[in-house]
């Protein structure tokens, strides 16, 4: 896990009450103790990380959508080429078959 920059939040910043399960609070308290920071900083950094990953996920999904569209275009082009090859093969077989009869 890469080390994150610790964000300092001023005491007069907007406050938000949060209800969470006891075991979750304990996990945040342990992380805060281990990183020598406040639980608030742990929560804020966690939320920022979540938002960053959410944005990254949106970009990845858009990339996957573009790749799929490109793949569908290439598949359609390949199908057209296969149809052309099949037509040319049929013409060749008809030509060769017609000359063999003569």
Task: Provide a short characterization of the protein structure.
This protein has 102 residues and is mainly alpha-helical. It has helices at residues 22-34, 39-101.
Structure characterization notes:
This protein has one domain (22-97). 75% of the residues lie in helices and 0% in strands. It is built from 2 helices and no strands. Helix 1 packs across helix 2.
How many distinct folded domains?
1
Q: Number of DSSP strands?
A: 0
Shape annotation: rod-shaped
Instruction: Tell me the major beta sheet.
Output: none
Gap from first CA to last CA: 78 Å
Pfam family, one: Arc
Coiled coil: 54-91
GO molecular function, one term: DNA binding
Protein name: Arc family DNA-binding protein
How is this fold's topology laid out?
Elements: H1 22-34, H2 39-101
Helix pairs in contact: 1-2
Summary tags:
coiled coil; DNA binding; 102 residues; 2 helices; Ribbon_hlx_hlx; Arc_DNA-bd_dom
């Amino acid at each position: 896990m890469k080390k994150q920059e610790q964000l300092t939040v001023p005491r007069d910043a907007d406050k938000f009450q949060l209800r969470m399960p006891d075991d979750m609070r304990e996990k945040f308290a342990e992380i805060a103790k281990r990183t020598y920071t406040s639980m608030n900083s742990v929560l804020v950094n966690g939320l920022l990380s979540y938002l960053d990953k959410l944005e990254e996920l949106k970009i990845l999904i858009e990339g996957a959508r573009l790749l799929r569209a490109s793949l569908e275009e290439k598949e359609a082009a390949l199908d057209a080429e296969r149809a052309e090859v099949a037509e040319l093969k049929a013409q060749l077989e008809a030509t060769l078959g017609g000359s063999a009869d003569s």
